[in-house]
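Researcher: We plan to redesign the surface later, but first we want a full-length starting point. Tokens attached.
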């Protein structure tokens, strides 16, 4: 694993965009809702994200972005593994729990659903009812602005039922 410089802080155009305006613009991008989980020597942790995308299919690599202020960022960095659990429609409450919108500890978040260890043996918790769960080894990360971008090589896939997907757009949940 490696970290690298923050390319954002080197931009000569950094002060040209109002941050509130940027956040409003980003809220209009619809995104799939996932829970990223990890377990290992640093402990079990997880959070809700909308930032997951494929990077490569050979080898299969994806990325996810996690705020530096989140406890999950440090735990995932130390564990070196994670699972992306793509949520189905109707799981808004679970998404809110892992987004920190309910008063519970990081460990108690897992009490709100049924979990399994990832099939490839990383130990990252896999949501029983996920549309798909992607088990990953961290192969790299970069720090950029407020977030750490984790690159994970997919070592296991669990396909769930092809149910409607949960999306987040305009600061609200939608389903397709």
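Model: Full-length starting sequence:
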């Amino acid at each position: 694993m490696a970290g690298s410089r923050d390319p954002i802080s080197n931009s000569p155009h950094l002060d040209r965009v109002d941050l509130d305006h940027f956040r409003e613009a980003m809220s209009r991008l619809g995104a799939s809702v996932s829970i990223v989980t990890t377990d290992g020597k640093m402990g079990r942790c997880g959070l809700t994200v909308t930032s997951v995308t494929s990077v490569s299919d050979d080898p299969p690599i994806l990325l996810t972005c996690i705020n530096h202020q989140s406890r999950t960022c440090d735990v995932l960095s130390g564990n070196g593994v994670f699972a992306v659990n793509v949520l189905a429609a109707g799981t808004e409450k679970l998404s809110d729990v892992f987004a920190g919108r309910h008063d519970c500890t990081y460990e108690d978040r897992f009490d709100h659903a049924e979990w399994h260890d990832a099939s490839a043996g990383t130990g990252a918790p896999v949501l029983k009812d996920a549309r798909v769960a992607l088990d990953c080894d961290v192969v790299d990360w970069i720090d950029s602005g407020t977030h750490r971008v984790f690159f994970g090589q997919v070592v296991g896939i669990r396909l769930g039922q092809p149910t409607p997907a949960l999306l987040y757009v305009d600061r609200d949940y939608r389903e397709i």
